[in-house]
Structure formats: structure tokens, C-alpha cells
Model the fold of this input.
Amino acid sequence: MFKTIVKRTCGYSLVELLVAVAILGLVISPLLGLFTGAFSFMARAGQSCTAINLCREKMETIKTKDFDQVKNLYIISLETPYIEEIFVGGPAYRRTTAVELLNPADHYLPPNSELLAVTITVSYKAGNIDYEESLESRLSRR
Done:
């Protein structure tokens, strides 16, 4: 029995190899499409995470300041109400800071209260699409 296996000279034909490669190609091509889609989604998620972190960074910087400092810097200064910053690296991120003094009558607040609405927006372009991430908060006297 061992001699018949060793002496066998026939192998795979060219047609069998071509069919096997074609089947392998049909199985692998959707998987490659899945991987490229997953990688592009991960890149987009990383850009979104960077934009949100830029929003948080600016919001924390504003919240460490006193109410009057924020009001004087953003409301009374000549840069009212927007201050823009541009970051280079990957997509160009543009951070916009808007601070607005809210009217107490419009927001059901006590008559002599002061409240600032702080909105941080980071916009960037990925491919041909423009994206924006925003963060809002309120700031009052302590």
C-alpha cells in the first residue's frame, strides 16, 4: 500500500488550481472591502475624538477663569463674540469660541442674574466633507 502512494505521479491540474484561486479571490475580496471600510471609520473616529478633545481643552481653560474675566475677555473685548484658532496637523482644525450674555427674561432666571452661554465649536474637513463638533456650557457668578 505504501508503494502505491509514493509512486503516484499525478498531481493537480492547471484547471483545478485556477478554480481554487478564483474561489479564494471571491472569498477574500469582500473581506478586504470590510477592512478598508473599518480603517476609514477608525480614522474618522480619531479625527472626531481629537476635535472633541480640543473643545474640552478650551472649555476647561474658560471654566478656570473668573466670571468677570470671561465676560471682559469675550463680551467686552473687540473680538466679540467669536475667537478663532487654527490647528495644523492631519486635517486643519478650526476652533471657534463664542460667549454670549443671556437675557434673564428669556431663560426664566431671576431678574438681576447674569449668565454666560459658552459654545466651543471645532470644525474640520475629512475628504470632501466638512464636520463640526460642539460643546456648550453655562457660566454664572459664584
Summary: The two ends are 94 Å apart (CA to CA). The first strand starts at residue 82 and ends at 87. The mean pLDDT is 83. Residues 13-140 form one domain.
